[in-house]
Amino acid sequence: MTENATQQSITMVGGPNTGKSHFTFQLYGRLRAKMSDLKLREMPNEDLFREGLDRLNKGLAAEHTNIDKYDNADLRIVDDDGTSFDLLWPDYGGEQILRILETRSVDLDWKERLAKTDGLLLFIRLAEIIDYKNMIEHPIDVKLKERKEKGDTDTDSILELHSQVGIVEMLQILLWTAERNSARLISSPKLGVVLTCWDELDSQGSDPAILLKERMPFLHQYIYSVWSQESVIIQGLSSLEQTLDEEKQNENFREKGPGAFGYVVSPTGEHSPDLTLLVSRILKLLDGD
Question: What is the reported pTM?
């Protein structure tokens, strides 16, 4: 596909605190520094990206982004072969996804976006997924109390996005909105599942697909009952390789710089510092159509 071909797009989705922001800031930093075969076709809304990168350069975690402060943060990208696409980050903190789950409705902007998207990048933080099968170890009322103590107002919706059932329901709503429901396995949009904060997991040697099946069997089964196997890719991601604080600087991170940190885990378990692989692999699925 060339730049003159019909433009394709990949939409990033996921709940709050799943790592979308840090990945996007790190990806932008890699693209701006020309550290891969992918390049920016044009500059995005730099205010948003500059703010996040400035904090990472100081060894600080990026702050929570106000969804009313910026327009969509689209990264318009092209590779060495002239393949171009847009990476859409329409929901900075996950609030809009929470609202979709809370109201079971999707606004016009999301409808138009989903109708046109060729791929979904679903961000999941396994360490924060609640397994409701074991009510003794993971009682819902305890989690509700914890969330309320943290000041989370949309507690029920937040909990849903920390459960397999909630994520499945979110995918069902998005597919229904995009009018992609079918009795047959769907091939569009492609689905890229991203298991984030890989550094905090206790299964460093696992393949992402195997880990998803072990930790979230219901979601895994749903995905492969809806999508054709060749239309799904499951990868791991550690954008920072550690947890940064919002106030206390990490001197080692600051001295080496954000470009020295982060890796992607391939579907077969290999680690690579090239964060753009997370995107280019799902792009190959699009090119396979």
Answer: 0.86
